[in-house]
Every structure is written in C-alpha cells, then in structure tokens.
Amino acid sequence: MILFQQFLANGVVVGSSYVLVALGLTLIFGILKIVNFAHGEFYMLGGYVAVVGTQVLGIGPLPSIVLVIVVMVMLGWFIERAIFVPIAKKDPTNVIIASFGLSILLQNIVLKIAGPEPMLARSGLPRGAIQIGNIFLTSERLAIVALAAVTVTALLVVLKYTWIGLSLRAMSENATVARICGINVRRVGVVTFAIGAALAGLAGALMATVFTVQPNAGSLIVMKAFVIVVLAGMGSIEGAIIAGLALGIVESLVTGYLGNGLRDIVGFIFVMGVLTIRPQGLFGIQTDRS
Amino acid sequence: MRAIFLILVAAATLAIVSTVFGGGYAINIAIVVCIYVILASSLDIVMGWTGLFSFAHAAFLGIGAYTAAILGRDFGTTFWLNLPLGMIVAGLFGFLLGLPLLRAQGHFLAIMTIAFQTIVYLVLSQWTDFTGGQYGIEVEPVAGFTTLSSYFYLVLVIAVICLIAIRFLTQSRLGDALQAIRDDETLARTIGMNTKAVKLVALAISSAFAGGAGVLLAYHIRGVTPDDYTVLASASIVAMVVLGGRGRFWGPVLGAVLLTALPEMLSILTDYKHIFYGGVLILVTMFAPQGLAGKFSRWRAR
C-alpha cells in the first residue's frame, strides 16, 4: 500500500507535465485544427532554454522560467505566421507534413548544436527528499506539480475572464459563427499557438530539472499528448487535465507492477482501442460530407 | 507500355553508372536508392492514389525486415522463402491495421498510424527475447549473392518487378477506384463502390511492398536494429513522396532518388541529412504542394 502511494505520487509528477503539453496541443489541435507534430520539439526547446538560463547565463530558476516563456512565445508566434498560416491557406492537409518536417528540423539542429548527451537544468532547490505521509518526493518534483497547478489555474482564469479566452471558446464551438460575430480569427490563432508553445516549453523546462533533456526528448511526449487529446476530446481543457494526470498515473503503476518495458506502450494501445470503437474520438460527432 | 520501357531504361542506366563509375560506395548507395524507390512508390499507393496519410510505412518496413531476420535465426530459412513471407506478414499487418484504421476520419487516421508506428517500434526495442532488443539480430548474406555488386543486381531486378507491378496496379480498375475514393469518398460510395474493401486492399498491398523492401534492407545491412524503423524513417519516406509528387507514378521514384542520393553525393550534406529532410518537407509543402512531378507536368502543360 505504501508502494502504491509512492507510485501514485510519481505518476502525478509525470502526469502534470503531460497536462501542460496536452493543454497546449488541445488548444492548437482542437481549436485551430492544426495537427502540430513539432509540439514535442517546443517541449524539448523549453528544456534547453532552461539549461542555457541556469547553466550558461547563470540566472536563477525563476528568471529562467520567464526566459523560457518569452522565447517560446516568440518562437510559436514566428512559426505560426511564417510556416503554418501560408500552408493552411493552400491546403490544410499539408500542415501535417510540414509540422513533421519542422519536428525533424528542430530536433536535428539542436542535436548539431548541443550534442546527444542529456543535459540537466539546475533548479537551485535544496537537495534531499521531502516526506509527506508515507511518500517521498524531491523538492524539484514537488515544484513541478506546484508550478503546473499554478499555470493550469492561470490558464483557466484567462480562458474564463479575458477577451482572448472568450474568443477561443467561441471559436472552439463554431469557428464560422465566431468569425461572423467579429472575432479576429487570425489574431486569436497566433495567440493560441504562442500560448500552446509556451505551455509545452514550460513543461520541458520543469522536467529538465529532474529527468534531463536531450534532442529527441519531445518525440515520444508529443505522441502521448495526442493520445491524451484524443481521449479527452479535442479542445476540452478539463478533459486534458484529467486524461493527462490519468495517463501519468497509469504509466507509473504499470512501471511499478508490470515492469518498465510496458510503460510507454500502454497509452498507444489504449488510444488505438478507443479509436477502433469510436473512430471520431471519444467526444466527436461523426459527419459525412461530399 | 512507355512507362515500363522507361523503367527498364532507368534501371539499366543506374546499373551502368554505378558499376562503371563507382566502386563499392556507389553500389552501396545504388542499393539503398532501389530499396527506397520501392518504399516511396508503395507508400504512394495509399498516400497519393487513395489520399490516406500514413506515417506507419517504416513500421511495415521493420515488420518485413524482422520477419526475415527471425525466420532466418529460428528456422534457418533462406532469402527466397523469407522475401515472400516478409511481404505476406507485412501485408497481413497492414490489413489488420486497416480494419480499425479505416473507420477513423481525417486527423484521427494520421494519429492512429503514428500510434501503430510507435507501438511497433516499442515492441521491436523492448521485447528483447524475441527481437533482440536494441542489439537486434544478425542476418546472413544471401547465398550466391554474397558480393556487393551481385546483390545490387538482385535488388535492382526486384525493384524493377515491384515498379512494374505498381504501375499495372495504378493503371488498373483498382487504381481508378482508389482515385475515385481520394477525390470524393462519399460519392464513390453512392455509386455502389465498396470503398472500405478497396482501401483495405490498397493498404495491404502497399504494406506488403514495404515488407519486401524491409527484407531487402535487412539482407543489405546484414542485420536489423529497431532504430532503423522509427517514426523518423516513416517521415523520410513521406518526404520522398511529397517532394517527388503525390499520385504520379514518377513522383515518388524521383523523390526517393533525390533524397537518398543527394545527401550522399554532397559530402557536406551527409552530416546534415535529417536537417535537409526536414527543410525539404517544409519548403515543398509551402512552395510546391504537388511536388516536383506536379511542377513539371504543369510546366509541360503550358
């Protein structure tokens, strides 16, 4: 039972990073309808910016996080404007291919610059585990959960009470009607993309303090984020939070009781099963158009 | 008929150029070119002709390669049995994947192929007892074709046969059916076409060719390791099809030749091969969504 609690806690730590990555993806995929495979590279780049901030520039952990967010917002802004908007105008299905290209490009550029060795971002937090009841967690792991919780809360507030949040929710319900009501769809699009990139970068930065970061760090997590988004329903914020935490916990339990080899495969088998039974996703509606 | 003539001419040119002008290195590249030509052309059956995005082609490549390697290891079967068996097993997996896959729509379909690709990779790398894990399995060279140049001729002949088969396939009634589905599936169903069966057949055939290419690759590099069959490999096959031009017979052939040979020829590019692939994918989708073959035929139409 004590072991079970520990597995659960580890799962929540990993799950919080899944939540952050999946939230950005669900905004981009569910609302803008862009399938962005380079989303995992935003996660990876966030980790490297955190390494640069804490190890190379020597600024503290909090300024580094600000740096991560600023860099990722700028990058997301640039990529949406320079690559995705021009392609989507011609043929939306090509966006998938272009995002794949972007993913390979970013991964290998980083590989050339930083090399294949994993790197650690310094959190500056005291060493040693903290005991809570029967479970032990390092301060970095606690910080991941805490910061993820703060970020998710902030995002929910933004979505609920601000202009951009209102436009986003309108667009997720019906993009055409939102446009008729005078919402600047293009502006909302680029802001959404930037927010999504920043969320993924933040997750990467937080995880880089515990699990290190390497050039291919994002390739598996983006697939898992897609799994979460499909299970949660496209564009569903609450769904992504629940499904993200659930995937982290399930993976942790599988690792603990069934072995490490099965950890990564669980989510994919599950999503294939779900899509077999409900081809349009858990909450989608099947349509047929000529 | 003209296309078949052109295939033979191209194959003869490749054979002459690589044996006369190059040593082992050039023949090596020529073998890889042939294998990727089969891969890109077979992916185009589903991607270009049927309009289904598949990012799982390297998984079928891997299934073919591992079928040959495991059969060779456990039963000592030869190349001539492993090649058809590799194709059958890969085709069977393609068919089985198709059953759930073809119910999904649009983006979900692409995501499912990637989920499948990831599952196959994880099984290949984690099921150590069966697949050899990260170390993979060694494969003995084909008896009678142990030298590099003799193996090259074998691969070349098989590639020519595959290309001719794909050409006949896309020109047949099945090819017409695939195009009808790509252009408007609902309409195709309305006129009484069993679109699901047609798509299943296309996916199984395409996967079988990829499995065959996998067997050739396994015997060429004399072994299999899971890292050759990642989603990255799938993406580079997609890059070849997109660069060359989807739904045109010569498109994927051209794309495969260019993307395999160019990085090898320009020595600066070998180190930056994947950066080059990524850049090509972005630039082509931005500026020539129909690929080089599409650009060419538009230019000729003028």
Q: Count structural domains of chain B.
A: 1
What is the largest interface, and how many residues per chain?
Answer: A-B, 49 and 43 residues
Average pLDDT rating of chain B: 83
Helix content of chain A: over 70%
Gap from first CA to last CA of chain B: 25 Å
Instruction: Name the structural class of chain B.
Output: mainly alpha
Q: What is the number of beta strands of chain B?
A: 2
Strand content of chain B: under 5%
Number of domains of chain A: 1
Q: What is the approximate shape of chain B?
A: globular
The CATH architecture of chain A can be named as Orthogonal Bundle
Largest sheet geometry of chain B: 2 strands, antiparallel
Q: How many individual β-strands of chain A?
A: 2
Strand percentage of chain A lies at under 5%
Radius of gyration of chain A: 19 Å
Into which percent range does the helicity of residues of chain B fall?
Answer: over 70%
Q: Major β-sheet of chain A, in short?
A: 2 strands, antiparallel
Give a structural overview:
The complex is a heterodimer of chains A (290) and B (302). Chain A is mainly alpha-helical and 290 residues long. Chain A has one domain: Orthogonal Bundle (ABC transporter involved in vitamin B12 uptake, BtuC). Helices cover 73% and strands 3% of the residues of chain A. Chain A contains 11 helices and 2 strands. In chain A, β1 and β2 (135-138) form a beta hairpin. In chain A, α5 (139-161) packs across α6, α5 (139-161) packs antiparallel against α8 and α9 (217-232) crosses α10. The longest helix of chain A has 30 residues, at 61-90. The termini of chain A are far apart. With 302 residues, chain B is an all-alpha fold. Chain B has one domain (2-230). Chain B contains 15 helices and 2 strands. A two-stranded antiparallel sheet of chain B has the order 1-2. Chain B is globular, with a radius of gyration of 19 Å. Chain B starts with a helix and ends with a helix. In chain B, 51% of the residues are buried. The chains are: A mainly alpha (290), B mainly alpha (302). Chain A: It is a multi-pass membrane protein. Chain A: The chain crosses the membrane at residues 12-35, 65-83, 95-115, 142-163, 188-211, 265-285.
